Structures are given as structure tokens and as C-alpha cells.
Amino acid sequence: MRAAIWITVSLLLSSCAATISTRYPGSDAGYAIIGVGAASTTEYSSYSFLFHHTGKKETGRFTYFQHNIFTSQKPDYSNEDETGVVEVATLPPGKYELTNFDIFSNRFGGPQIHYSSRKEFSIPFEIRPGEVVYLGNYQANIIKGRNFFGMPVNGGAFFVVTDRSEIDLQLAKARFDFLPMAKTQDATPDAKQVGNPFLVSADQARHAREAAER
Questions:
Q1: Residues of the chain by 3-state class (helix, strand, coil), percent to 5
Q2: In the chain, where does DSSP find H-type helix?
Q3: Distance between CA 164 and CA 161 in Å, rounded?
Q4: Residue 4 main-chain phi, psi, to 5 deg
Q5: Which of the four pLDDT bands, split at 50, 70 and 90, describes residue 102?
Q6: DSSP letters spanning 99-142
Q7: Cβ-contact 37, 83 below 8 angstroms
Q8: Would you state the pLDDT for residue 179?
Q9: Highest mean pLDDT (candidates 4-18, 153-167, 177-191, 196-210)
Q10: Class of residue 182 by CB neighbours under 10 A (exposed 0-12, middle 13-18, buried 19+)
Q11: Residue 87 and residue 21: Cα distance in Å, rounded?
Q12: Structure pTM?
């Protein structure tokens, strides 16, 4: 798992900028809802899922800022096992896909490090005017590695993908009561079918956590 993760060191926060706005103001807008969070043992600055219009290059982001020196974000859910947010994006109609993640680390004055998958994936979803699409819930779990001296260091994370639509949609509706929940598509992927080692199903999570600690 660790061998397939892509690590980059960045000196500019602007390298994380998105080009697709998630606050589209048009009257034909639709809504995308996604849960993004982290297990209690996992701590980075932020976690983003990248998306774009199918067949186009411009990229947007759904982001959870966990420990970010520039931005604070109150979790929508928090317990002894995990914390996270339910992001609501307003987008123009069209076909889109999630293609990668970006885990950003910039804590304790160290270098800015990004972790993502070397192999992109495709999780398709469609935005329809006046409708909601739910993309699933993605919980980050830390991957441990070792440095040159054999000391344990953080090496990114994998995500447990689950359908928490009943809870996540309630959380979204509590913040944005105008959301048309009666018209909701559930686009939660089957992680096993996505075919990326960093996206695992609930029944694969235990084995993935054991492998990530080796």
C-alpha cells in the first residue's frame, strides 16, 4: 500500500488551489454532499477529494480542514473514534467524477507535504438541477512508514468508504434547510469495484489498518 502513494513537498499553499467553484450561483444548480473525516489516530492538516467534469481538466475540491494553520473548521460529527465534516457543494449541471485525494501536512513548522494516489480512480456522479447527489463518507486512517534511520513516521492514509446517507444528509439539512432532500441520488461507490488500494470497504478496514501499521 505504501509503495503506491505519491508524496510531494510543496513550498506554496497556492499549489492546493481549486479551479471549480463549489458555490455555483446559477438557478440551474444542483447539490453534491460528501462526508470527509479522519479516525482518532489520524492527524493531518487537511483532506481533500478532487473532482472534475468528465472529460475536462479543471479541478474542484471537497475538503476537511482538520489541523490547518490558516483555516479552522468545526467538525459536523465527533466522537472517540473519528471526526469529520459533511460538505455541501453547489455545482452546475453535468457529469463529474472523483479522481484522487490530497492529504496535506503542514504542522509544527515542518515542510508542506502532500500525499495522493499514484493511480487515479473514477467515481462518477451527476449533478441535476434542483437535486441532491450523495457521494458517500470517506474516513482517513493513517499509514505508518519509516524514515532513513528506521524511525516510524507518517506516510499518508487510506480511506474507509461507507454509505452514511441517513446521518450525513440529516447533518447537511440541519445546516442548509433549503436542500431538496426528496430528490436525492445515492452515488456511494463500492470501494472494491473502484480498484484503488487507498479506498477500502467497511469489511476490508480491519485488514487495511493492520497492513498500514506494518
A1: 15, 45, 40
A2: 165-175, 191-194, 205-212
A3: 9
A4: -95, 0
A5: very high
A6: EEEEEEE--TT--EEEEEESS---EEEEE-TT-EEEEEEEEEEE
A7: yes
A8: 97
A9: 177-191
A10: exposed
A11: 13
A12: 0.87
- pLDDT average, residue stretch 32-49: 94
Contact 33, 87 (CB under 8 A): yes
Q: Report the distance separating Cα 33 and Cα 187, nearest Å.
A: 10
Q: What angle do CA 66, 67, 69 make, to 5 degrees?
A: 135
Dist. CA 187–CA 164, nearest whole Å: 11
CA gap 5, 35 in Å, rounded: 22
Q: How far apart are CA 68 and CA 140, in angstroms?
A: 16
Average of pLDDT values for 57-86? 89
**Average pLDDT, stretch 190-202?**
93
pLDDT at 19: 87
The single-letter DSSP state of residue 197 is T
The residue count for the chain: 214
Question: How far is Cα 106 from Cα 13, in angstroms, rounded to an integer?
Answer: 10
Q: How many CB atoms lie within 10 A of CB 210?
A: 9
